[in-house]
Amino acid sequence: MNRLFMIIAVMILSVSTFAQKPFAGNITFENTAIGTDDPNFLSALSEQTQEYIVMGNNWRINANYGFDLIQIFNGNSKTLSIVLDLPGYGKYYVKKTADELDKDRANIKMDYEYTTETKSIAGYNCKKVLVKATDLETDEETTVTLWVTDELGLGDEINYAQYPGLKGYPLCTEAKTEYDGSEITVITTATKVTPNKKVKATEFLLPSDAKDLKDAPEDLNELKKQLLGEDE
To answer: What is this structure's pTM?
Structure first.
């Protein structure tokens, strides 16, 4: 009888283990820059808020750039949706499939150099990774520095939309760009990681009141051209 109870207990524990939800939580990021002392630029950069919601292979970014911008990635279906909440117009979305994402970067070769340099970010140990993107048509190279952690236990496809094949999850991004004729580095760093078991799969669905950008009015044609890559 004791042996029977032991077998049942093991089965229950096994089911509980496999039924556990993947890591889910909220990550708050802040933006800074080095290479410029322009107070207007730095102030505008710091006011650009970004909050990520992550779970398994999925992420959602709630950002504000003077208007609300939502990006939703479903790593299981490998689809990326961009939702813009435009004052006076409402919410419109653009959705890209895995094939479309692959087509967008067909001429870009991504190489990852995993270094031994580490540092702690928001309480998580992160490793420095150099990302080199090469344009196969022009041979132009761009390098981005990431600090990634494998301590969150997120899914293997969590980076597919941005850095396909990258191991670990980026808690800091350092990217060089030009501003006012000079090269500066914009740094986006996680300041807080909050595990949240209340995150649900519905967080990664399109808002029910969002419309396809293809159906937007004519005065948004320029925006449609930029995001859809074609004249509407």
So the answer is: 0.82
